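Q: What structure does this chain adopt?
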Amino acid sequence: MLLFRLIAILSVPVFLSAQLSAGSAWPNVDDTTRKSVFKFSEEYKKFISTAKTELTTVRETIALAEKKGFKKLQENSPWQPGAKYYDVNRERTISLIVVGKRKLKEGVRAIASHIDSPRLELKAQPLYKSNGFAQFQTQYHGGIKKYQWANVPLALTGRIDKTDGATVWIDVGNKPDDPIFIIPDMAPHVDRQYRNRKASEVFKGEELDPVVGSIPGKDDNIETQIMKYLESTYKITRADFISAELSLVPAMQPRDVGFDRGLIAGYGHDDRSCSYIAIRASLAVENPAFTTVSFLADNEEIGSRNNTGAASDYIRGLLGQLLYLESPDESSERHLRLVLKNVHVLSADVTSGINPIFPGVQEAQNAAKLGQGVPIKLYGKGSNPNSEFTARFRGILEKEKIPYQTHTYKVDVGGGGTLGGFLSLEGMEVLDIGVPILSMHSTYSICSKIDLWYLYKTFEAFYSDTKRLN
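A:
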């Protein structure tokens, strides 16, 4: 009898944590779910093939939202349960809002992701000639391994704003018949004197200059010819580059990886994977108990700076506006503080999964693995959510039978940040999750389709849950 009781006691924790991943999530999905996973992944691939910067992501998000009945948030927008709004901050940040049945001060469910990715950007005076070629001078946005951007087909995308108020949109390299741009590497026959460079200096920042032209005019000046082309095609001058936001991004389209097609290679999984899934979760919400907000921010890769990043007061102002629409007589700073302390946030960003070639750079027991479910990121050192909030979130996952895992970097090894730190400063409860990827910050990273699906189910469950989390 004593042995029986001991076995029963020891088995309880195993039952309670049944969804803590101990292996691949694939064998546990039925045929119907598998079809849903692959269908969802195709829709995601279509999205990231077009949404490659924050500017294009905001435009694509608006198009998706309006098809689902979302309206632009106005100063006098009606406040009623089930109402759906979107709010755009300077065309580079967007939030999707679905009004809940309960008061804002009783709780808000938010998902925060970022929609910028590592890339190259044109300098203010980019065009120059060198040894018979026209080239663009660039600088990089976010932490990159610079050598990875050589010999890769690049597309030029973004906007140029002119002094007369006109905006010129440019997108060259993403269509199959477009020209592309490329940063040429040295042949192994001539690079001997450069082979001792450190990995971080195989290419230096000032060497990341793509070729943009090669046919000179009669004056033999290729730079002049390219500038004439730009002037005639886009009606811009050299000075207009000063008020431009032009990015060079990989021109490759996302593709399935492996015979079984279980993985996706593509540009911008960081963090348009989590952002797209947050969008889809918002589009699926109907009459939630608590108001839901999907906050998709700019500039996370460079510290969330500027007035479109999470370090700005945009999200605070948005919540203040929502509070005014809901309760005009209770929209003071004191009332806003009551709302902020009851905002529960999933800060959703990718993390580095264990690499099959270099597994030793991560600590296997605590590092995320592709295909094994949603990582709860626990960085320690004062960055973790409180244990109560973590436990309540685990309860949502286990109730929905969503496999999850944990992610912590090796001690004394560098990690990464998310939007969560900025939101927690406002008193919000924040927990970091995401999807694991390989080749993070490269031009063509890899994620698992099953992880995307389970993150979507997580967001759905988080938004639809009716229990207060505090």
